[in-house]
């Protein structure tokens, strides 16, 4: 993650001068502010700003005049209750602003989460940097043979080498051509908004992304999930580590009820109750399709 | 605005202990934090938290690594450019959290602004306070005779007295009955979620309301407007005064381009150009309807 | 539900003249169009328009050129898969527009669902009708003694009579006063936007409400739930019956996975697995709080 | 726009069988349904479904029981009034669903409009087609020398030829490599979700996009504007032609007040008033910056 010395100096400058505030503060998040947590080969996640902390969730839920109770126990119980019963509005009272550097094909998945604010680096206005995501060998996976949108075994030997060679050389060549088309040296130079169309989806872009905690939890549940594509999952995991330091109680409830939780259908509940009563249930008399049954038994045996 | 001594003490406690932060700070907004700005007879607006300042708008617009330029001039020019050209995303990078106490009929207008987060005091769960909005005499206006949704002259004499008497006595009686129905003294006591239905729309409720600056400007443009109902306008004006201290440059641009600005239709542009060329234009040859023409001449003579 | 003869005639007129369309049609929903399904004492739900059907969900999920497969089996399997795995966008491709008449205290809960379009009857512009929700005796419930936001036993005898008398007489008196303040007979007449503040929360309002199927399912899951207040639940149930006729396959999946389903926390999964293995687990060694354990055993014994 | 014979047959089949409906119908839009309006070299816009028409806007604004007035004049006046005064909710009561085929760099701009529903063809799940946007010679523009995000003169001669050659050969080569990496002929075959990263931003994707009329007008105002990039503007213009046939009255108001309209700042109003009074105003005493003055005089001379 090659931040330039100038960029590192700007970050250091921002971290050098604490200022007094009367707002709610999260010590855990202050420690992260502005620093770039590296992700993939050239990407990062940086916390630019945050609003609120665990106490702010409680304060909003109670529409209170002060800062909430002093008893941490009560706050924790309330936060877990709110999470368990799908209350969303108190969690929306916390907000996070990130600066993210990420490949375009990851950005295209990410942007599907619409309830967030985004300010992206403009390739109409500016020139893109020569930085491309090239997977590490252990992440160069074959198409899954059982799941149309999944990965199978890691590629090996000559095939892996061929793929890496293609990715690297196409990135280099398309970027050379991008520069060549833009060049105003002895020619007019193609408009930036047109030249960018030659760049592949593994080039890095950047954006500021701002989201409330409720919608962030939704993002993390979907994107830190094992079914998410590896290249977005590592971003979600990096963010999750920051959130754990920011709002530890809310994050604990999220881990228990959402990340570690599961949703059972009415049919699945019925099967489990029969099993608890000692009955042996087969797919045929479960009422579930084969696909549902397979997913069910992966969890419950 | 009768805050209890306990509530005032809680607010004082929150303002007594500044803590260090590395985040962007707005000195102007720190001065407002937690204090209750009174609105109407029992209402208020309090800033609970904020994210960002003028520099944060610039920083997001530039997707920058540091805190933006040092030259205030450049920042101001960019912010005005962004406002003039309807850029919304950089303004979305600032966020405000308010605690508001307001009559229910005002809350029902307010909630129509959907792009915001709300946590309202629950009358299913808790008992409402005995506080009702009773207009001051100078705001007791007659129905407009020209505008179906506007006000005319102020009521006078016996009629004004009758109206005030009705509002006060109905408020008192319905609240007495509310308490009587809830009472568990010698009876079961009606469920809170049912008893509340007897309370009129001028009773006060409270909520936490969180919104980004772009959507807040939209709210202010519609609700601080002379066409807005007086009782919501005073809330918008109280908020506007806080925003002016929070992000003075952005607020200045907002005042010039939105609050002080106007939108001309294609027809209105054509009429103005003919006038500038010395022509006298009448409604008949303006292409405008009578209503449009009246609104046009109110501004341009 | 007193629709006037004029209103009924307008509805009959709308139902009298089918017109040809090339759009996707749902026979089940055509049967509901425009008719008012009565809810509570004066309320109703009417379908004004709809977009899409079960096949449209499949068509969007496949980004297809035609109308989807001919095999209903495949479509059903895909819709159930999408529901099971929390895919939201294909369900967003169906849209419903309703005309609803409902008490204001119900409207205030309803509007909290922000991802919808609303056009409400304006009490600034128009005069409200003299129609109030008065609960039927069997819905006049006492405050729950175990749940702060729930209902207990039905009120009986003299207490029930007193409550009904209060609700009726306060509704009548406040409405009389509303009319008296508005009257321009021998006086100026108070502005409508002010007079409305005297009306209690059980007066009926009306709105057009438009929502996509994904967000409608979310609304139904929360509002057709036994924990929802009875007075909004009956609206949700009336809508659910229409949705069942509109998109029967999607509604079936929704019933199985959402309405009939349940979410287990990581701790709850662990307890169930221990039980399935024959172990007896107590609250103390479950890792759950008392509240969680009580909710858990209500389902699993 | 190479639709396959199978796709054209599917579209013909959908258009061949009108069915009766009781819903509001727009004859103008029925004529467009399912047909692919070609855009750029391989793209298109197809209307898949719509909800509402001009009368539905009026009906919602009046929260009416029937279909609105019979007098077209009244409806038109109301729609123009609603547009002039920035009422948004009645326009939200109409909805449009499109199937769009578009280059990825256009899709990335388009998706920034968040208040819409999207279902995109998945390159994790499926294999992309070999179709790339290659600009026509007259759209191969140089970088603007005055506007960082604009186009200047058209490229000519050898430079234009070089650019076209680059775009074509890089598209062909990266797609060849895409297929080569995916191939399972004698090798495992790279996962689709990884192989796609080699494809440039001018490859075509497809999506279903559904939006309400208010947000669609906002999209059209920004994207059918001369400042928008040509490659998205042609999509906006194709959609605008369909909307003009769908809701001709609302579209007429939109053209007059939005597309043909302009927003004046407070400073600009003051200058125009001075000019109307016969005064000559210069930039120096206008209170405007040079940039604002230049934009002002471009309109007003």
Automatic annotation (TrEMBL), chains A, B, C, D:
Binds 4 FAD per tetramer. Each FAD binding site is formed by three monomers. PROSITE patterns: THYX. The keyword Repressor does not apply. It catalyses: dUMP + (6R)-5,10-methylene-5,6,7,8-tetrahydrofolate + NADPH + H(+) = dTMP + (6S)-5,6,7,8-tetrahydrofolate + NADP(+). It is an enzyme of class 2 (transferase). DUMP binds at residues 109-112, 120-124, 196, 223. One of its GO terms (molecular function) is thymidylate synthase (FAD) activity. Its cofactor is FAD. The keyword NADP applies. The active site is at 223 (involved in ionization of n3 of dump, leading to its activation). FAD binds at residues 89, 112-114, 120, 212-214, 218. Pathway: Pyrimidine metabolism; dTTP biosynthesis. Keywords: FAD, Flavoprotein, Methyltransferase, NADP, Nucleotide biosynthesis, Transferase. Belongs to the thymidylate synthase ThyX family. Homotetramer. Catalyzes the reductive methylation of 2'-deoxyuridine-5'-monophosphate (dUMP) to 2'-deoxythymidine-5'-monophosphate (dTMP) while utilizing 5,10-methylenetetrahydrofolate (mTHF) as the methyl donor, and NADPH and FADH(2) as the reductant. This is Flavin-dependent thymidylate synthase. It comes from Gemmobacter lanyuensis. The gene is thyX.
């Amino acid at each position: 993650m090659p931040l330039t010395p100038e960029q590192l100096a700007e970050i250091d400058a921002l971290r050098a001068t604490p200022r007094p505030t009367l707002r709610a503060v999260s010590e855990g998040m202050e420690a992260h502010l502005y620093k770039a947590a590296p992700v993939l080969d050239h990407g990062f996640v940086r916390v630019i700003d945050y609003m609120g902390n665990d106490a702010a969730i409680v304060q909003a839920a109670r529409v209170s005049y002060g800062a909430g109770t002093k008893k941490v126990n009560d706050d924790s119980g309330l936060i877990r209750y709110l999470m368990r019963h799908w209350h969303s509005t108190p969690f929306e009272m916390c907000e996070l602003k990130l600066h993210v550097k990420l490949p375009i094909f990851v950005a295209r998945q990410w942007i599907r989460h619409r309830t967030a604010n985004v300010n992206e680096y403009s390739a109409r206005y500016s020139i893109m940097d020569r930085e491309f995501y090239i997977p590490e060998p252990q992440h160069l996976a074959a198409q899954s043979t059982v799941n149309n949108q999944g990965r199978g075994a890691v590629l090996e030997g000559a095939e892996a080498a061929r793929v890496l060679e293609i990715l690297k050389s196409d990135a280099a060549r398309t970027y050379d051509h991008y520069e060549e088309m833009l060049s105003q040296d002895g020619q007019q130079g193609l408009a930036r908004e047109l030249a960018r169309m030659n760049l592949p989806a593994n080039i890095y872009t950047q954006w500021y992304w701002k989201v409330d905690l409720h919608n962030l939890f939704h993002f993390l549940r979907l994107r830190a999930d094992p079914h998410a594509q590896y290249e977005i999952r590592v971003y979600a995991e990096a963010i999750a580590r920051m959130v754990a330091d920011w709002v530890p109680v809310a994050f604990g409830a999220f881990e228990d009820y959402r990340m570690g939780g599961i949703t059972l259908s009415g049919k699945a509940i019925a099967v489990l109750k029969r099993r608890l009563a000692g009955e042996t249930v087969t797919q045929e008399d479960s009422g579930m399709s084969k696909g549902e049954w397979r997913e069910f038994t992966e969890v419950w045996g």
